[in-house]
Task: inverse folding
DNA sequence: CTGAAAGCGCTTACAG
DNA sequence: CTGAAAGCGCTTACAG
């Protein structure tokens, strides 16, 4: 069934040299004289020989594969990131093994352990809330790794992150300047390093002003459940005048909730989101976003990974990229009459086909 | 640097048996007596031994890896598909190697060849326009493969596809019933099997009526270029009253173009899209879509792949899943006065921040 | 049921 | 510069 692929021995035989010599021309690991070298090249060509990466990996304890671990691919931002890595990696002869942590440290650890058993040449990791055991396992294996997007304790690992503090600072100050006094930040997990940085910056921006900030943690991944949670908030009264969503899924849920409750955006509530979704410009009003330079992240991370693979003991490399605030129609100035103090929104749109799980 | 992982020999030594015996309990490839078996299990546990898949793969010419090849991950639908595969595969102890064809047969072939050199246990392929050489290479290698989403010539390969004819038939008939007489179908590549099926169905629906159909092929992946192309159409006069987009990227470009040209949807033009984007319900008007059951596809494809890996010579397995038409506000009835005959839209919105490449 | 041994396809000291 | 040979960690006929 499986016709045997040519091996290095076939090439050697055809070129009239030893396997070792073929290996040397393949790897440039030793000088091979001009004509032998050419004979080897010709033989490789004639047989359309390609190396068996399994054998190579077994011998060298290192395969030309880089493992990419992100929480989910269905999040547009992570999908784009993986896409970008696939591009740059395959142009350098690397395969991508993709694993998903589901933002769960246990799964993350297990999946990374499996990746390590393949002796991958390197790992790109968007870490979960608590990646300690995962990072320890990677460190123990000596596999080069670059941490991306979410910072971990500095000093041990190469990483490329965003300047979340600055981005949030910009966003918060912008809102405050527009008259907002009650700002809510909706997050998946408070404990996430990225989130903590953002919360700190939000509070710092509010310090010394009369601005009230509030963090809403919504651990669920289920849109219905999230919307139900939001509905509670808006019905509870004392509604914020501006909401910052930590990712595009929350932004989407918020927009749908606005619609259900007939909350006008931005007249009643302004909205701004981290994690620029591709639909930001399609919705009405257009969504204000913090734009993260995905391609730049991927390129930088790859650069770090390559240099780490070449030099495992070099100094730790760090990059903090800039994220841009892009204000659009979903954010507006607060007029005194509209400050929502003590206001409730509970007009559930009767015609909405929405199922409201849990309500 | 790299502490040596325990090997099967370490386990054997600790359990006081031979490596072959350990292998047998690992694989259940031969009966091992109760107590020896337990000793092996204990040793594995004590050393937290895991098999080296590279060695295993080298020996068996088969690794517990499945290769997934899609055109792009940044397309939401494909990302979801890959996500779904990762889930089901890793729960069965398989890794995922992900490659991207960029809808280019040459790249597809090259990347698949590389995949094959890893002796992957199976492949899931969303084929490019012309996957002939790729499929030949896969067939030659004897690797189990399931073709997904886009049908290829029947009979050689397991595949799970959608009933595109029926979906398009429903969509077209729905539009015709609402009074539409000029329908445009915007596609990436006419030659794609999926697209051809849809075009055929569209024409069939129009046959015997006074309905004019038109296919617009836009090979570009650049949103600016696509919009420029669309602007031409709308300026050209004799604008269609209904447009069907073959994927969500086109739908997005169309919505933006409507906005630029102050075309009202659905009053001036109705819009409907294959490939349900996650923002379909966020835009105004809500987008009408043909909804494809992603998870079901993934599950079915995996089922086929597993059974193919178990039985390489079994009969070809085929599934054609049903895609639902979900009508929403973006589609409406045509009133006689609004039939756009000879109409042009060329009010370029001056305030739009849009860059119009090429115009 | 169990072990000794060959072999999967490479790479890499080690001689020469 | 080049070749012979060992070895990476498994699996699998083959004896027993």
Result:
């Amino acid at each position: 069934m499986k016709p045997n692929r040519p091996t290095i021995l076939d090439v050697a035989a055809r070129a009239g040299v030893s396997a070792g010599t073929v290996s040397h021309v393949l790897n440039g690991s030793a000088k091979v004289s001009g004509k032998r070298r050419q004979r080897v090249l010709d033989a490789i060509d004639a047989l359309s020989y390609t190396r068996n990466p399994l054998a190579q990996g077994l011998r060298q304890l290192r395969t030309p594969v880089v493992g990419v671990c992100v929480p989910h691919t269905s999040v547009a931002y992570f999908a784009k990131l993986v896409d970008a890595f696939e591009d740059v990696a395959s142009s350098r002869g690397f395969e991508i093994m993709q694993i998903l942590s589901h933002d769960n440290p246990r799964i993350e650890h297990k999946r990374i352990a499996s990746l390590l058993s393949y002796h991958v040449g390197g790992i790109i990791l968007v870490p979960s809330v608590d990646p300690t055991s995962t990072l320890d396992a990677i460190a123990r294996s000596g596999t080069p790794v670059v941490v991306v997007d979410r910072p971990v304790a500095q000093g041990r690992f190469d990483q490329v992150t965003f300047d979340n503090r600055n981005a949030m600072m910009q966003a918060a100050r912008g809102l405050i300047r527009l008259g907002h006094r009650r700002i809510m930040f909706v997050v998946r997990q408070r404990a996430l390093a990225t989130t903590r940085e953002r919360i700190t910056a939000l509070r710092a921006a509010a310090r010394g002003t009369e601005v009230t900030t509030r963090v809403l943690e919504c651990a669920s991944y289920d849109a219905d459940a999230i919307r139900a949670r939001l509905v509670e908030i808006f019905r509870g009264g004392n509604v914020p005048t501006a909401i910052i969503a930590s990712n595009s899924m929350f932004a989407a849920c918020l927009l749908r909730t606005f619609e259900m409750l007939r909350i006008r955006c931005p007249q009643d509530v302004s909205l701004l989101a981290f994690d620029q979704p591709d639909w930001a410009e399609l919705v009405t009003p257009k969504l204000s976003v913090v734009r993260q330079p995905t391609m730049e992240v991927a390129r930088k991370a790859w650069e770090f990974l390559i240099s780490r693979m070449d030099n495992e003991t070099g100094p730790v490399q760090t990059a903090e990229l800039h994220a841009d605030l892009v204000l659009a129609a979903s954010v507006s100035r607060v007029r005194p009459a509209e400050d929502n103090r003590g206001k409730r929104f509970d007009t559930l749109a009767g015609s909405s086909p929405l199922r409201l799980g849990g309500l």
